[in-house]
Structures are given as C-alpha cells and as structure tokens.
Fold this protein.
Amino acid sequence: MITSPTGPPRFFDKPFHASFVSRPNRFLVECISGGKNIRAFLPNPGRLQELLLQGSILHIIEENTNPERKTAFTVVAVERDGVPIMLHTHRTNQVARFLIENGLIPTLQGASVVKAEATVGRSRFDFLLNDGRGEIYMEVKSCTLVGERVAMFPDAVTARGARHLEELATLSFDGTRTAVLFVVHWPFAEVFMPDYHTDLHFAQTLLKVHNDVDIIPVSVRWNDDLSLVPDVRILPIPWEYIEREAKDRGSYLFVLRLSDDKKINVGKLGSIVFKKGFYVYVGSAMANLTARIERHQRLRKNFHWHIDSLRDVSEVVGVFSIRSSDRLECELASSVSNIAEWPIQGFGSSDCTCPTHLFGFKKDPVSLPSFQRLLQYFRMDRFKE
C-alpha cells in the first residue's frame, strides 16, 4: 500500500487510462493509451465479460518487478458508468487487511491480523485474525460481478472456492471461528448473493455453511485515482431467496457460431438457409437444467429438438444459465428479439405462442453491451426479495 498522510489510502502508483481492445487469453489484454497499442497483464482469471467490452476504460500501472514477464504493464481496474471497479485480485488481500486493521468492518472491529497465509493441517487460508476473544481463520474473495444494486460471486466456476467454504466449515465444527470476507468493488451494491446461475455448487455450498461460517460481504468505493474511500457497508444476504432459487432449473441462452451460409433440414420446419454469423437459442428446463445444457453441447445424439440440427453444423460459443423458479423462457426470447439482427421464424417455439426462440447476429453477441445488459437484468436486476 502507498501511504497517504493527507488523503485516502492508495494501493497503486501512478495509474493511467487505456481503452480496452481485446483479451487474447485470461491473463492478457490489448488496449490503447495515448494512441499507442499496449499489452498488459490482467491479474484476474474471472470471465469479466460484462466489464471488458470494446472501448471500456481501463486503469493501468507500469511495473518492472519481474524480468520474466512479457509486459511491464498491469491492468488494475476497469470503469463501469465512470466508476472504477478494482480487478487486481492479488491486491484484494491488502485492501482487506487495511479495512480490518483500521476497524472499518463493523463485525470485525477490534480484530488484527496475526498471520497471512495461515496453514491448518492441509488447508491454507488468507488470514488468521484475533479480535481479543479468540482466533478467526478467514478467506478473502474479490467480487466484481455487479448489477445495478446486486453483487454476486463468482463470475466463473470455482471448485477451489467451494472447497475453501467446506474447509472453513469443518474447522468451525471443532469450535474454531471462521469467516469469508467478500470485498465488493461497487459502491452502489445493496444486496449480495452467490452467483447460482454460474456456479450452482458454490452457491449451494455457501448456503449449507452459512450458519457455521461468518459470511461478510462489504461494499467499497474507489476514487478515479484509485485511492480507497474509507466508507464501507456490510451488504445483506437474502438467504431465503437463495434457498428457493439456487436449484437446477430455469432458462438458458445457447450461443453458436456458423462459419458459412448453410441450408439445414430442421424437422417439420423443412430446409432453412442459415446465414453465416452467430445465433442465440433461448431454451428452458424446469428440472435438470445442467443435463439439458450438456446434451445440447454434445454432437453425437439423436435429433429431438430444432436446435439439434443447428448444433450439428456449428460451434458452441457459450452457454448462459438463468436459474429461476419462474418460467422466463418466453420473456427472455422477447428480450433477445429486441437486440437481434434477424429471427428464424418458428424455430424452437412449437410449444408456445412466440414467433421464434432463435435469433441471429453478425457479431459475437457476448461482446455486445446490449447482450450483457440483458443477461444482467435476468440474472440480477429482476431480484425482488
């Protein structure tokens, strides 16, 4: 941390702005700053698809600490609606330590860090704390997946994260106090939930252990110079809502890429000419949603649904679950139709009154702000406790 005797604390030295261009792999981004092309290290393995959109403003620092690195630049934050969201997962522990040792987390006031990277048996946790009443083993998680008022974690499947929860719960059974601190880098968040759409196992594990492990989601605010505003709020968690919704049912968006124009025989619809491009299919399964999605992804299968014919000649770009106890498939199809460039009439809608459940795009829809806003709405912003 960079100390600041006259202002809020800063964790990054001389950040500058750049414009996002692409992400060649999980840990590398290409961007433009001052008219120059820059490649920068991204210390965050999350998907970040809703944040790393074409032209998004990044905050970059220059580091020369590791001669083996391919770039001297590091992405540390991205702006959403003009507000920085810190992305540097390695620095989140520094932020957590500052919040704890300065008494800024109400449920941890009086606590201090005894040890970082504390080992218990085969388990290792981010911190061992002591608040005067005893020891607390704590894990820290960085949360960047946010809607207008809902924050969720994780944005990608994390078997390691679920394992940490189970290990902390096991410790608590022996009388040891344990906690997970979720640092939410969005000052407007009002509610925190596990992202059961993306990682159902993590969400169900969090639900299972929440009476044994102290779950502490806190919202923080970053200034434009990436100084930290010492205004921390603990976010409520709607456990009853999560228990109802975190089940293997709901709707999904199945995104495919067709490399060339093709004429395809689609069951009773007959032969249809599909233009080269991307396609979003809207489906649902109010039981065994995961199995339905896995079936769609397989190539070798007996054709049953319209989508099977298109999947047979196309490439899977992505699948986005929207788990819900409500039947949202037709509402979802209507919303996708508003951002699509063309429909395939009658496709996948033989059992409802919708014109179609398949929509075409010239460009990858996953990279479009309109698609990400739609996904955010159905996954987060529809939330009503």
About this structure: The first strand starts at residue 16 and ends at 25. The mean pLDDT is 94. The chain has eight helices and 22 strands. Residues 159-173 form the longest helix (15 residues).
